[in-house]
Amino acid sequence: MIPIIDWTRAETDRDALVKDIGAAFRNPGFMVLTNPDVPASLRADVFEFADKFFDLTIAEKQQVSILNTPHFRGWGAKGDESLDETQPQIDTKETFNVGLDLPENDPRVLANDPFRGPNQWPDLPGFRDTLLAYYDAAQTQGLAILSIIAQDLNLPANHFDALFKDPLSALRMLRYPPATGAQNKIGAGAHTDYGAITLLMTDGEPGLQVRARDGDWIDVPSVENAYIVNIGDCMMRWSNDIYVSTPHRVLPPKNSRRSVAFFVEANPDTIVEAFPGTGTPKYPAIRAADYLQSRLDATYAPKETS
Fold it and tell me: Is residue 304 part of a domain?
C-alpha cells in the first residue's frame, strides 16, 4: 500500500511528518504527497505545454532530438529508451528532458562537461519560461523533502543543501500512447530511478505500478493535487539500504497518458557513499555524475525493436 501524506504538516506537525515520511521511504519506498508547495497553476501550465510539444510534427520534434547532444536534453522518440536493462523490450513513451539551464558561455558548457550542455528548446512561445519556472519550483520542493530525509537519518536538516546547489536534476515530460496489443512493447520498463528522489505528477490515467517487497505489482493510486514521490538509487546508497529504491513500471495505458517527472539529483562531483552510523557500506563510493552516466549508458544501449 502506498502511503498518502499531507505536506502541509511540515509547518504544523514536522516531527510526526519526519517519522511518517521516513517509514514510507523504508517500505515501500514510495509515497503520495498531497498539497505540495509548487503552485497548482504552474503544474497545470506544464501539462498544457507538454500537450503542445508532443502534438508537434515529428520533423519539428526531431529538431530538438535528444540524440543531437551527449547531454541528454531534448526530445526522446518512442523506442529511443529501454528502461528495463534485463529485457529486450523497447519503451513506447516519448519524452522531453530539461536540465540545469546554463548560459552558453558558462565555463562548464564551453568545456563540454558531462550533463552541462545547453537545453534544446522548440519554437513554442512561453515553453522555455514555463519549464524553467517549474524546474526551479520542483527543485525547491525536492530540497524541502530532502531536509525531512536528513532529519529522519539523524543529520542536520540542511545537510543536502550544498550537495544540490548546481544539480544534475532533470525535468522530464512524458506521453504514453494507448495500448495496441503489440508484443514486446511496454510504456516504461521495470526500473529504479537513479538519483536521490523523484517527484512525479500524472494526469490520472492508470498505468504506474510499484513492485512490492513480496514481488507483486501494485497500482499507484491517483490523488488530486499531489506528487508521487519515490527513493532513487543514490539515496539508497547514501542511506546504506535504510531506504530502498523500488522497481516500478508503466503499463501501456488504455488511453493516452501524460506525466511529468522531476528527478532530484546532486551536484556532479558529489560523492555518494554511506552516511556514518549506517553500518558497513554495502556500495562503493561513486561520483553522482559517474553513477548517472553508467545508468544512462545502459538505458540508451541498442535493444531489439521487433
Answer: no
